[in-house]
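Researcher: We plan to redesign the surface later, but first we want a full-length starting point. Tokens attached.
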């Protein structure tokens, strides 16, 4: 993801932060709202991480991918959203060059990991519905752990390289700004690797998933064998719930990349607009735990066990959290 190009930061003019133009009540409200969003993002995703990590019954391929997405969202909540929201409220970058470098790297990292994890979720659901027997034999938690680890390591190497070769890891930052340099070639590569290719894969696979899910719904009504029906219902519901997550993710991601692509094709005049549109993408990290709470009964049960501290009981990891109606 790119906000700026080399020619945008070639000349760093003397800059001073503008005076605050909000009234004090509005100023306080903005900070309270920002703190609430950050708290929801961090706490909500930590609950997801604890739930999937603690309860052994939830160590399934699909949930491991949800865990990876939640870790990425926590990083956004801790290292990205607070700085970005303060930046927008103050109209000035206050933390300094070190935190600017951390902010930029984590932003790149969380974005690429999130997009590729959602692509893995699409692949996982497609295989589970289209090739159920092969899926149950070949797609084990170990396989997904390896795929997830590769995703994170690839993202670290890729993002460090793209930032390093463009000279972003320096102590010099324009006063009041936290811009990063990404030339046109790197911008095009990033657009392909982090947006066009994975999002095209997501759309194609989930279009196929919903077609298969519809066929399964018809088959379920015709089947008489209860066991087979329950299995098909389970996979179909998982596909539909994760489909909601994928749809919301794309809804939050597309506006940024549409503006980014327009900016890439024209000039750098849309910087402020893109910077604001990024908020919608970051808010996806806050929305994901809400989706889990609304559509996953196991998450509601885990939440009760966590807030009542029953997770500290002996053998609590073996509790049947899927016993609720699904």
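Model: Full-length starting sequence:
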């Amino acid at each position: 993801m790119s906000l700026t190009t080399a020619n945008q930061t070639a000349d760093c003019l003397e800059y001073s932060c503008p005076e605050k133009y909000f009234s004090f009540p509005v100023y306080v409200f903005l900070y309270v709202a920002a703190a609430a969003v950050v708290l929801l993002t961090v706490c909500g995703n930590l609950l997801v991480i604890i739930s999937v990590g603690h309860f052994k019954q939830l160590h399934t391929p699909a949930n491991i991918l949800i865990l990876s997405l939640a870790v990425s969202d926590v990083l956004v909540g801790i290292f990205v959203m607070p700085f970005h929201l303060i930046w927008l409220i103050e109209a000035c970058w206050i933390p300094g060059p070190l935190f600017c470098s951390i902010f930029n790297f984590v932003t790149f990292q969380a974005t690429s990991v999130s997009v590729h994890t959602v692509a893995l979720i699409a692949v996982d659901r497609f295989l589970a519905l289209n090739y159920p027997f092969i899926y149950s034999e070949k797609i084990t938690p170990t396989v997904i752990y390896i795929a997830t680890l590769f995703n994170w390591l690839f993202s670290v190497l890729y993002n460090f390289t793209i930032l390093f070769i463009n000279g972003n890891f320096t102590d010099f930052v324009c006063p009041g700004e936290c811009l990063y340099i990404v030339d046109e070639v790197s911008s095009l590569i990033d657009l392909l690797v982090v947006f066009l290719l994975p999002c095209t894969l997501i759309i194609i696979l989930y279009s196929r998933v919903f077609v298969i899910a519809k066929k399964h719904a018809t088959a379920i009504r015709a089947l008489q064998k209860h066991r087979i029906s329950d299995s098909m219902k389970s996979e179909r519901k998982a596909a539909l719930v994760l489909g909601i997550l994928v749809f919301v993710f794309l809804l939050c991601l597309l506006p940024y990349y549409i503006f980014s692509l327009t900016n890439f094709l024209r000039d750098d005049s849309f910087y402020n607009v893109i910077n604001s549109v990024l908020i919608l993408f970051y808010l996806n990290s806050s929305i994901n735990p809400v989706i889990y709470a609304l559509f996953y009964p196991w998450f509601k049960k885990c939440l009760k066990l966590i807030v009542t501290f029953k997770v500290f009981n002996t053998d609590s990891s073996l509790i049947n959290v899927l016993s609720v109606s699904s």
